[in-house]
Design the sequence.
């Protein structure tokens, strides 16, 4: 079992920035991919970004490309999501997830991921 805890959610104005963090209970991941998803009311869970634990180029949804940045800190067993130039449509509950071991990269389907956090709420309003 891997436990994931998201933090950093809150309210931000359009055009503002917010950074989310996800702490994992496992110190070392073997062939793992870390992902961020979001789910807004009335919508399906949506892929946001993913990165391999051991490195490589991250992958982003077109809707957030150029605005969001996913990163990892192997020493702290964390993965972060820096969100800039935020839009009202970015409002959602954000979840971090782990795909271990991954069969393909990037994995865009939530069903590919094995562990999930509880989620953190992000609102965008003026």
Sequence:
């Amino acid at each position: 079992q891997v436990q994931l805890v998201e933090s950093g959610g809150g309210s931000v104005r359009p055009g503002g920035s917010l950074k989310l963090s996800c702490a994992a209970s496992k110190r070392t991941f073997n062939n793992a991919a870390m992902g961020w998803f979001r789910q807004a009311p009335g919508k399906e869970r949506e892929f946001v970004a993913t990165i391999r634990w051991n490195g490589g180029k991250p992958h982003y949804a077109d809707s957030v490309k150029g605005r969001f940045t996913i990163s990892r800190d192997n020493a702290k067993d964390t993965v972060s999501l820096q969100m800039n130039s935020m839009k009202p449509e970015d409002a959602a509950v954000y979840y971090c997830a782990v795909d271990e071991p991954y069969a393909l990269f990037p994995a865009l389907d939530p069903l590919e991921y094995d562990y999930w956090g509880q989620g953190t709420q992000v609102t965008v309003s003026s």
